[in-house]
Amino acid sequence: MLKIGEHQIMRIDRETEPGLFLSNEEGDDVLLPNKYVPAEYKIWDELNVFVYLDHEERPVATLLEPFILLNSFGYLRCTTVSKIGAFLDWGLEKELFVPFAQQARPMKVGSYYIVYMYLDEKTNRLVATSKTIKYLNNDKLTVEKFDKVDIIISHITDRGANAIVNGKHKGLIYKEDIFEDIRTGDKLEGWVKKIRPDGKLDIVLQEEGYRSIEPNAQYIYDELKANDGFLALHDKSAPEDIQAQLGLSKKSFKKAIGTLYRDRKILIKEDGLHLTE
C-alpha cells in the first residue's frame, strides 16, 4: 500500500514517456515524473521517494525533500489565500492546503505559521492545520527527566519560549534559561530539566552538567580574573566587539556567561561583566 505523505523505498519497475514507474512489494506502483528521474539508474534500482497527490489528486513520487511530513509539525510560509482556504509552501510543486476551518487565525500571504500535517480521511488529501494544540498531549509522557529531545519553538511569550517536544508534547523554556537568540520555528536540541506534577515539561537548551564542563565559561572566568574582575562586555554587546576582545561568537559568549551567571560567578551589568568574588 502506498503511504501518502511519507518516505518509502520503491523499486524502478519500468520506463515510460512521462517518467519511471516505481513499485513496492505489494504491487502498488506510482509515477516518478521525468523532472525527478536521477541522471543514472537501472531497472530494479531502489529509490527512497516521497509520495503525495499531484494537482489531479493522483499519487506521485518525488526525490525532493518536503519541509514537513505526515503527522508532524512544521513552520511554513503562506503563499496564497483563496476563496476556499490558504496554501503553504512545503517545498513541493503542489502547495499544502489549509482550510479556513483549520486556521487558528486568518492566514496572510507572506506570513509563517506553525502547522501540523495530517491525512484527511474523507478526501484522502494531505492538509495542514494551525490549530495544533489538539495534537499535543502531556497526559501520557514518552520522555523522562534529563532526556535529550528534539524541539520546535512554537511561540515566544514574556515567560519564555513555548516548544513542541518530540512532536508529541508541550514544553516551556523559561526566559532565564535562554542564553541565545531563538525564534519561532527554530528546530533545536533540548533536554528535559523538570517534569511537573501536572505533566508540564521544563526544557533547557544545555545538557545538565554543562555548566561544569563549559570551556568558554572557564575561559571568560579566567579573563575576568586577569582583568581585575571586569570585562566591558555583556549580553547586548555587538558580535564584532565580542569577537575582537575574546575571539568568540556571540552565541558562544552568551552561553558561557549564562553558565557563569547561573553559577553566581558573575554579575551582568550595563557597563559589563563583574566577578562576584
SSE order, one letter for each helix or strand: EEEEEEEEEEEEEEEHHEHHEE
- Rg value: 24 Å
Morphology call = elongated
CATH class of the largest domain: Mainly Beta
Low-pLDDT residue spans: none
Mean model confidence by pLDDT: 92
CATH homologous superfamily label of the largest domain: Nucleic acid-binding proteins
Number of helices: 4
Beta-strand portion reads 35-45%
Instruction: Please count the beta strands (DSSP E, at least 2 residues each).
Output: 18
Tags for this entry?
single chain, 277 residues, mainly beta, OB fold (Dihydrolipoamide Acetyltransferase, E2P), 4 domains, 5-stranded antiparallel sheet, 39% strand
Structural commentary:
There is one protein chain. The protein has 4 helices and 18 strands. The chain has 4 domains: 7-62, OB fold (Dihydrolipoamide Acetyltransferase, E2P) (Beta Barrel); 72-133, Nucleic acid-binding proteins (OB fold (Dihydrolipoamide Acetyltransferase, E2P), Beta Barrel), CATH 2.40.50.140; 136-204, OB fold (Dihydrolipoamide Acetyltransferase, E2P); 211-275, Winged helix-like DNA-binding domain superfamily/Winged helix DNA-binding domain (Arc Repressor Mutant, subunit A), CATH 1.10.10.10. A hairpin with a 6-residue loop joins strand 7 and strand 8. The N and C termini lie far apart (67 Å). Helix 2 (215-226) crosses helix 4. It has 277 residues and is mostly beta strands. The chain has helices at residues 210-213, 215-226, 239-246, 250-262; strands spanning 7-16, 19-23, 29-33, 46-53, 59-62, 72-81, 85-89, 96-99, 112-120, 125-129, 148-156, 160-165, 169-174, 187-195, 201-204, 230-231, 266-269, 272-275. The longest helix is centred in the last third of the chain and has 13 residues, at 250-262. The strands form 4 sheets. Strands 3-2-1-4-5 form a 5-stranded antiparallel sheet, with no helix packed on it. It has a 5-stranded antiparallel sheet with strand order 8-7-6-9-10, with no helix packed on it. It is elongated, with a radius of gyration of 24 Å.
